[in-house]
Amino acid sequence: MSRVLGLSLQSPPSAITLFLLLLCSVFAAAPSWAATNQVSLEIRGGKSELQDNIRAHLDLSDIHCNSSELRLRSRLRGSDQKISNAMRALGHYHGNWTLLREQSAVKTTLLKSNPLSKAVKKIAGSKSATPDTEPESCWVLTLELTPGPQTLISRLDVRIIGEGENDPIFTKYLAKLPVAIGDPVQHDVYEAIKNSINQRARNAGYIDGQFQEHRIEVNTDTHSATIALVFNSGSRYRFGEVAFGPSLLSTELMRRYLPFQSGDPFDSSKVVQLQNNLISSNYFASVNIDQENPNAEQQRIDLNVQTAEKRKYETTAGIGASTDTGPRVSYGLRNRRINDAGHTYQIASQYSPVLSNLSFQYTIPGSKPLTDKVQLSTGVERKDTDTTESLSYRAEIAQISLRSNNWIQTLSLKFLREDYDIADERNTSTLLMPGIAWSRSEANDRRYPTRGWRINTAARGALQGVVSDVSLAQIELDSKVILPLWGGRVISRGGLGATMLDDFSELPASLRFFAGGDNSVRGYGYETLGPENAEGEVVGGKHRITGSIEYDHRVWGDFALATFFDAGNAFDTDTFTLYESAGLGLRWLSPIGPVRVDFAFPLKDGGFQFHLSMGPDL
């Protein structure tokens, strides 16, 4: 055993010296004990994979240097069988080996090379009373190994018979088996294939499936092996009845969350999907789904669904800030359950120096309530920017549905009445606008995506005389793409807008296009770019174009640095000027979402603009 480090001091030690002595004894003595206190096993011969498998089978971690020879002999009893099993598991059936044991002196040199002990000597002016090297006696095991030829697979017969023979759940797996003819025999891979087939069968409803043949045959003369795995799937069970326990919501509504129908082939992943659907509905605090015992006679599996509702009312309150709207406070009230049909309403309000609103929204679930719904809403909004002042009232009905390829479609009919003041010109507009919009987004991580994209597009119009004061047509397209680069991210966004109408003065402020701000051309204030009147005041435009490219890279924890270039403007004619800006930014992936701080420099006008914004990247 190692002795505790001893130092002779020529003067009384200080507190610092005693502390360093203690550290030195820990770092110098303890590691040398750890290095020599456990029996060592040296394997000579064979590949590292085989050596590691033998070590795992022998598992000598409980044998220490001070173990008696009697204990060592007892512990090594049966080691030949363990070594044989370890070799056969990797296809070595003809190996030879000899396991030798001896007690040997082991030299520790940690003390001599320990920089901390050297520092203590220098500080305390002492010399170690312990020699630089200290002999210790410990058991040393040596395995002389001749693995012999590895047995290879010469014939591989893995197949499914029965009803599941052509089921993709099996055929896709068999097409990518983790073993092939010519590979070494590995028993763990063989067992993994068996377990995978069994598990797939159970998950897909082949409850009665079993292996009709499962064997490995080894020819010791030719060093070859045959693997035969023949699985008889039997018949596939079906979904039976789905029983819903007591709930404040109607059974008819809850059945709309089913991703299957009774009589469909059983699939355990759809049971999980049903649970996720009900949780995502936001009605329930918990959902438990029990599978009843399979009915062998009818070959079906019944389900029992138990739910616990969330509280009926939910309130939210928040504070935030951005350079576009300034500081803001918000409050919301949601009724999750107006009736057993699952209707909900939500009241939302926000106040800021620039943008304040109050809205009411009533939602009716559709045939696929997670994605399809009808929304009735109304609200009032006040907006006060450097360029416009407006007060608008709206009422809208919208049908939202999930279309093919995960596009979300919104059909709407919106009534808008707006009083606005732009460049000291006051006006009032009334519009009834049918509209259609599509949106879609994908991301590998919603919190901090390194790859993803988003597209929003919308079209709306109005016809003079049909409630509306003016005829118009307007389209918008906005997109954003995030891609990984050099360990960071490239974020690119672009936006287009176009309006067709005869009398631009009749276009309300909320439908005019401006540029500038946190999510537009940084380096300029919120909505300060666009066509100007004779006095140089921005009045907004019929069209807009904006674009940006940004690179950010994490530098420490949840913080990243960014650099960016923006360009864009709003305009009325084919001749317009693109305003450009560039800058640097700091990103913080905070618990409540990304926070962005930017310093942007206009490339035409000089100076700089500070920007603060929050919200998801996609």
From TrEMBL:
Keywords: Cell outer membrane, Membrane, Signal, Transmembrane, Transmembrane beta strand
Secretion signal, residue range per the UniProt entry: 1-34
Keyword Transmembrane: yes
Domain named POTRA: residues: 239-307
Complexes and interactors: Interacts with TamB to form the translocation and assembly module (TAM).
PANTHER family from the UniProt entry: SORTING AND ASSEMBLY MACHINERY SAMM50 PROTEIN FAMILY MEMBER, TRANSLOCATION AND ASSEMBLY MODULE SUBUNIT TAMA
Membership in a protein family: Belongs to the TamA family.
UniProt protein name: Translocation and assembly module subunit TamA
Organism of this sequence: Zhongshania guokunii
